[in-house]
Design brief:
Blueprint lengths: L3 E5 L3 H12 L3 E5 L15 E2 L10 H17 L4 E2 L3 E5 L2 H4 L2 H11 L4 E3 L1 H7 L9 E5 L2 E3 L1 H14 L3 E3 L2 E9 L2 E9 L5 E5 L2 E4 L5 H7 L6 E11 L7 E4 L8 E5 L2 E5 L3 E2 L10 H14 L8 E12 L15 E5 L8 E6 L5 H16 L22
Parallel strand pairs: 1-2, 1-13, 2-9, 5-15, 13-21
Antiparallel strand pairs: 3-8, 4-8, 5-7, 6-7, 10-11, 11-12, 14-17, 14-18, 14-19, 15-16, 16-17, 20-21
Length: about 375
């Protein structure tokens, strides 16, 4: 393979894209302005989605999530905790959603089954004892750093180069074709040019800023959400509220912690997200409805991160009505050749996003190289640091 591709971003999407490219034989360079998973990927809810959260409102995303959930179980089991999830009815309004929720899950291909309340409380003894119903789904949990390293370790084995603390400051053009990127080493301040045949913009909520350097537009809407972590793992399984997605309706166990989330509002700058005090109060109140005494674990962290949601006309700006699916943009249609953006989606769907982006690259170069990331097992995340 004589073609080289530069991937901007070493979060989940960039890491999965580097893996797919390297597996298909491309020469790959990943540039990341911080550490691996130091952006949105490293500060999310750590949920391996079953798709249940989106089954009623966003079935396209729900189907993507359950399909990728099953693929990730096969290719990267070392980075996942396959602990399942419960959707629970906290009141009569939640209970009224049960039949519609079960029907929506069936329509989307999500295995979901109602279990007796007594059984749910036995499985989760700290759960509110007054719940009215419980539905079990194949949710899970991942460790974000290990998730990304698993993809990058395998990419490195296949020849990829990963450059951290390397920030893209501009594009290099030959006419109207992108021929590389100018980067700055954030440790030394030195700048240099890295050449490539194609550049893939996988910078998440920063993808709009990256695209603007090339004079093109990406309709990404950075939408922030607050999460609160406490120093006790109150729940074994992922706990969701049996209702439409809303604020403070999910508690995800992560190692020895439990994380309540999340809220949703649009922000202008993903690097500067003030945390509203009323969001914190709301989340703590909602957490107590799930798990009485939640804050007795002691608050370990209150944090916020921006989601890279793809905007659509006539849709509310706070993000709840925006789809969680992803889109790939070939900027040749904007008059800039050699630049592709992949954005939106979830961490759960990173592999599918990568497949889409690399398919576009292959088509642009007239290559017919099939994707193999559905079947090829990933190396341990530990292998990233070997050699």
């Amino acid at each position: 393979m004589t073609y080289s591709v530069i991937v901007i971003g070493a979060g989940s999407t960039g890491a999965a894209t580097a893996h797919d490219l390297a597996l298909r034989g491309f020469r790959v360079t990943v540039v990341e302005r911080g550490e691996v998973a130091s952006g949105t990927s490293g500060r999310n809810h750590c949920l391996l989605h079953s798709g249940g959260r989106y089954a009623m409102r966003d079935p396209e995303s729900a189907r993507e999530c359950i399909e990728e959930n099953m693929i990730l179980r096969r290719i990267m089991p070392e980075a996942l905790e396959l602990n399942d999830g419960l959707f629970v009815a906290l009141d009569e309004q939640d209970l009224s959603f049960k039949e519609r929720f079960l029907a929506a899950c069936e329509e989307c291909g999500i295995p979901a089954r109602e279990i007796p309340v007594k059984q749910a409380l036995a499985m989760e003894p700290h759960l509110n004892p007054n719940i009215l119903a419980a539905v079990q789904v194949p949710d899970g949990v991942f460790e974000p750093f290990r998730f990304c390293l698993s993809f990058l370790a395998t990419a490195k084995q296949n020849g990829a180069t990963v450059l951290t603390y390397t920030e893209v400051v501009d594009f290099v053009f030959q006419g109207r074709t992108v021929a590389g990127v100018r980067v700055r080493d954030r440790r030394t301040g030195e700048e240099r040019v890295i050449g490539g045949d194609i550049v893939i913009n996988a910078a998440g909520p920063w993808s709009g800023k990256i695209a603007a350097m090339a004079g093109v537009d990406v309709p990404v809407i950075p939408t922030a959400g607050v999460m609160i972590s406490v120093g006790r793992r109150w729940n074994r399984m992922v706990l969701n509220r049996l209702n439409m997605p809303g604020d403070g309706d999910i508690i995800v166990p992560q190692r020895r912690t439990a994380i309540i989330g999340t809220t949703s509002w649009r922000v202008e700058d993903p690097d500067f997200i003030p945390i509203p005090e009323d969001h914190v109060r709301l989340l703590l109140d909602r957490a107590e409805r799930f798990i009485p005494g939640y804050t007795r674990g002691g608050i370990r962290g209150i944090f916020a991160v921006a989601r890279p949601l793809v905007g659509r006309r006539g849709v509310a700006a706070d993000g709840r009505e925006l789809s969680r699916t992803f889109e790939c943009f070939d900027h040749a249609v904007d008059g800039v050749e050699g630049l592709v953006t992949i954005t939106g989606g979830k961490m759960t769907t990173a592999r599918a996003m990568a497949e889409k982006a690399v398919d576009v690259v292959c088509a642009k170069l007239g290559l017919e190289i099939p994707c193999r990331t559905r079947e090829v097992p990933l190396l341990s995340y530990r292998a990233f640091f070997a050699g």
